[in-house]
Structure formats: C-alpha cells, structure tokens
Design a protein that fits this description.
293 residues, mainly alpha, MetI-like fold, 2 domains, 13 helices, 76% helix, 0% strand, cell membrane, MetI-like_sf, transport, transmembrane
Length: 293
C-alpha cells in the first residue's frame, strides 16, 4: 500500500475519532440547550389556554410587556442593578488581578486558592451569610451598637438595592478576577520594559500599556458578571425585598404562582434579547480596543 493510501486511512480514523468525541457534547447541546431555547421561544408566542402545546399563537405577551409601565420599570431596574454590580465587581477585581499578575510572587498559588474558595460553598449559603450580616439584628448592626456608632439597629442595610449590589458583587468577584488575571498575565513583559526604558513612569506605563492590553479581560469579566446578574432572582428575593424586584423574579413568579408559562417565556425571551444586545456591544468594544492596541 502506498503512502497516500495510508495517510487517507489515518485521516479517516482521525475523523471517526473526532466525531465520536464530539457526539456527547453535540447531543447535550441539542437536547438541553437548543431544544430548551426553542421551547421557550415557542411558549412566548402562545396564549395561556392551560395546555402545553395549544394551537393559539399571539404576540400579545410582548405587547403587554412593552405597553405596561411596570415591566419597563423592572427591566430598567434590573439593568441598573446589573450594571452597578458589574462596575463594582470589575473595579474591585482589577487590583486583585493586578497584584496576582505582577506582585504576588510565591504567594500567587495561595491567593488564587483563596479567590476560588467561595466556589466550594453553595451560592445560597453565601446569600444567607450576607443576610445574617446585614439583618436588623445582624452582625453589622451589632458592631455599630457595640462601638457606639449607632444607638439602635438600622433598617437601612437589608432589603435595599445597595444590599443586592453588594451581595452580587461579592458572589461574582471570582468570575471577574480570573479573566482579568489571565489577560494581565499574557501581556509581554518586554512592553513594560520598553516603556520603562523610554522614561515612562509607572502610572504612565499602566495607562498606556497595561490597561489597554488588559481590556479584553476586563470586557470578558464584565460580560461574565452582567449576564447572570440581570436574571438573578434569589438574591433580590432574599436580600433586596419588594423595592429591588428584578426581571428574574417576575419570570419565576409567572412560571410559579401565576401559572402563566407563555408570559413568563416572553419575559425570558426579552431578557435574552437584552443580554444579546449587551454582548454585541461588548464584542464591538473589544474589536475597537483590539484595533487600538
């Protein structure tokens, strides 16, 4: 057999092996992602006739969403809270990632372990912990009273949008630290050495070299934090109270107590469209920063 025949058989075996390895992931994607997405879109254009596969099709659910001021207010509140969470998380995560990338030295492994340590506990437990800290008779009020800074417990900490922002920022901090750290770690050290040789001060080097080259990681961190926080409903329900209701809470209520799956699916589709728009904007910004650097 000539060499061409041997190479063709090897190529066929490679294709078969590659297809065999990709099949489980393709099945999971098809069944658990694409089918679920299709079902949500399908339900969103149905009428609520108490049947799962009814024949009624209507856009009334979307008309209600765009004409009822309540849903516009909740969507705006969700975007505002998610934006504040993203800003607070990225701003707090950047110095940690910067220290890890350039100054941690032999302590890097320990700090990375501490950063990922919250993943070892349930998200629900972390929310409960913040509720204990911010509650009327919680840790924060107790400390303020013991130090004499407050004469009585305050109700300003819990059941506020600020409490939701604080809790979500803490919960998603590792998701922001790691992408920024990876982006900083991949910056060639020669660029910073060249800036130093040309007489640039540390702040100028950071502003002109480090920050622009780390923007892909910053934008990735922003997307990773923003996407789940827009639809979060556990934290607003436990920490925020009625004044911090977000779109995820409305979706959960429609699928739960209200038993109006079509309208809940329409709300979910609207959230997905908003997230898609944000991702496209971030992608365009990433291309812009990429062209400048």
């Amino acid at each position: 057999m000539n060499n061409e025949g041997v190479s063709l058989r090897a190529f066929d075996r490679t294709r078969i092996f590659r297809g065999f390895m990709l099949t489980p992931g393709a099945i999971v994607t098809l069944v658990l992602v694409l089918f679920a997405l299709f079902l949500v879109v399908f339900l969103s254009v149905r009428v609520n006739d108490d049947s799962l596969l009814g024949a009624g099709v209507s856009l009334q659910n979307f008309v209600t969403i765009f004409t009822e001021p309540l849903y516009g207010l909740v969507v705006l509140r969700s975007l505002t809270i998610a934006g504040l969470v993203t800003l607070a998380t990225v701003v707090a995560a950047y110095p940690v990632a910067y220290y890890l990338a350039f100054h941690a030295g032999p302590r890097r492994s320990l700090i990375l372990f501490l950063v990922t340590l919250p993943f070892w506990t349930s998200y629900l437990l972390r929310v409960f912990a913040w509720k204990i800290v911010l509650a009327y008779n919680g840790v924060l009020n107790s400390v303020l009273m013991l130090t004499g800074l407050s004469a009585e417990p305050s109700t300003l900490f819990l059941n506020t949008p600020a409490a939701v922002v604080l809790t979500l920022a803490h919960a998603y901090a590792p998701f922001a630290i790691l992408p920024i750290f990876v982006a900083l770690e991949t910056i060639p050290k020669s660029l910073m050495e060249a800036a130093s040789d040309l007489g640039a001060r540390p702040f100028t080097t950071f502003r002109r070299v480090i920050l622009p080259n780390s923007m892909p990681g910053v934008l990735s961190a922003a997307v990773v934090v923003f996407v789940p926080t827009v639809g979060d409903y556990v934290t607003p329900a436990m920490i925020g109270g009625p004044t911090s209701t977000m779109i995820g809470s409305l979706v959960q209520a429609q699928f739960g107590k209200a038993n109006d799956w079509p309208f809940g699916a329409a709300l979910a589709v609207m959230v997905m469209l908003v997230i898609l728009a944000v991702v496209l904007i971030v992608r365009q910004a990433d291309r812009l920063f990429g062209s400048r650097t």
